[in-house]
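Q: Okay, next protein. This is Peptidase inhibitor family I36 from Allokutzneria multivorans. I've checked the sequence twice, so it should be correct. Can you predict the 3D structure?
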Amino acid sequence: MRRALAIGLALAFVVGGNAAAHAAVAGYETCPAGKVCVYERWHGTGPRWDVPGCGWWELPSWIRNEVSSVRTHGNAMSLLDVANGEIVGRVRAHTATNLASWENERADKVHVEC
Ligand SMILES: [Ca+2]
């Protein structure tokens, strides 16, 4: 029991330390050159998904209806709310932005313009 607690505390420390290290470098600059990246939190933070390429992509379940900020390089992208069949937003090329309140956490699919 005591050993399990010690391991749990050690793990919490490692995870916490890792999160702190990420916070120091987190932000839109984490998006690889040439990619379109969507982030679960504001200001290019939180878990990130790199859209694999041009065209329509269904967001992985862990970030579906959770996207709050976007970074684009050379390609514009649109965000689709499948349930309402509605394009909820479009982000121009070479942009790093938080989504507007009416776009935030609504996208199920994205479309990268190429
Ligand atoms: Ca979010």
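A: Here is a summary of the prediction. The chain has one domain: 28-112. Residues 9-25 have pLDDT under 50 and may be disordered.
Q: Noted. On to the next one.
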